[in-house]
Amino acid sequence: RSFGGETTITATLFPGDGIGPEIADSVKEIFNATQVPIKWEEFEIGKTIDPRTGSFLTWESMESVRRNGIGLKGPMTTPIGKGFKSLNLTLRKELGLYANVRPCLSIPGYKTRYDNVDLVTIRENTEGEYSGLEHQVVKGVVESLKIITRQASMRVAEYAFHYAQTHGRKRVSAIHKANIMKKTDGLFLQCCREVAEKYPDIVYEEVIIDNCCMMLVKNPSLFDVLCMPNLYGDIISDLCAGLIGGLGLTPSGNIGDNGLALMEAVHGTAPDIAGKNMANPTALLLSSVMMLQHLKIQDKADQIHKAIMKTIEEGQYLTRDLGGKSSTSEYTKAVIGNL
Ligand code: NAD
């Protein structure tokens, strides 16, 4: 299909639940207004467990992401109960999404304690403390296994350095606790060092996680690209989201083999405001901008990004989380007006 002379790309869309469908609508409206050459293949979360995935996500939806190689995902609640896997974990495992990338950039016009935050966290997404291997040894004693493999560590380190090189970044910091976790974090660091040798133009450093937290809140501009194991990445990336204004603003990308990418907002389903036309769609919108950048549809990515920044800077149509009074649809309309 041709769209204004350009070939249309098919992308998978999971609106998700809670505020997901409302913010996904905002993305669809803005893409239409910008004439982005994307055709969505949309999937709801199933009502029954699909035995082929062991979760409420259907096998067909996984196949769609595999086939298209690109997708956008709204937040998803994992229903509480036994006998099925977390939706987010299913996506990561089924699709081999080994790296989670979160750019954290100060938004001009939205004042926080810091003006010039410009860093990227890259988190190993498949193993470490989140391997899901926990059991009770005897009553009152439980054990959780932290798995670090050379394969997954090399893969995420390679990605971090490649990302730094292709995005004009100067420094990669490996974040660790190898002074205590000598074997696991030791192996992670060893892999980062090996990869660093192949990138002499990029400064490589190693920072202990506790010191990293202190440095981040004192002066975030000390960092550029941060690469780390799963649990540290989960925590540090939320800390970084806080530096620029919170969950309504932070996008992310999950990266797999052969360029497969599933972008998503960092936040959850926000059940307290779901269905009320109150959610801030910026995080999902910026995730969709990351998707366009990944697809090298740079002109549309820039156009949408600029319109979002202008709308926030003008400050007239901000959602409640940013101190405004506008609804999701009023904000969306304002962004469209600024395209
Ligand atoms: P949450 O991110 O949903 O909400 C935390 C707070 O931030 C709430 O007050 C919410 O109203 C606000 N908020 C979040 N996103 C917002 C937005 N776009 N605009 C305005 N305000 C926003 O975190 P939670 O309450 O801990 O989790 C709720 C559910 O989401 C849980 O079921 C959790 O498992 C799920 N979750 C899913 C994902 C994901 O799909 N990737 C991530 C985190 C949490």
UniProtKB/TrEMBL annotation:
GO terms for biological process: isocitrate metabolic process; tricarboxylic acid cycle. InterPro entries: IsoCit/isopropylmalate_DH_CS, Isocitrate_DH_NAD, IsoPropMal-DH-like_dom. Residues 8-335 form the Isopropylmalate dehydrogenase-like domain. Keywords: Magnesium, Metal-binding, NAD, Oxidoreductase, Transit peptide. Its cofactor is Mn(2+); Mg(2+). Pfam families: Iso_dh. Gene3D superfamilies: Isopropylmalate Dehydrogenase (3.40.718.10). One of its GO terms (molecular function) is oxidoreductase activity, acting on the CH-OH group of donors, NAD or NADP as acceptor. It comes from the Eukaryota. Belongs to the isocitrate and isopropylmalate dehydrogenases family. PANTHER family: DECARBOXYLATING DEHYDROGENASES-ISOCITRATE, ISOPROPYLMALATE, TARTRATE, ISOCITRATE DEHYDROGENASE [NAD] SUBUNIT ALPHA, MITOCHONDRIAL. This is Isopropylmalate dehydrogenase-like domain-containing protein. It comes from Riccia sorocarpa.
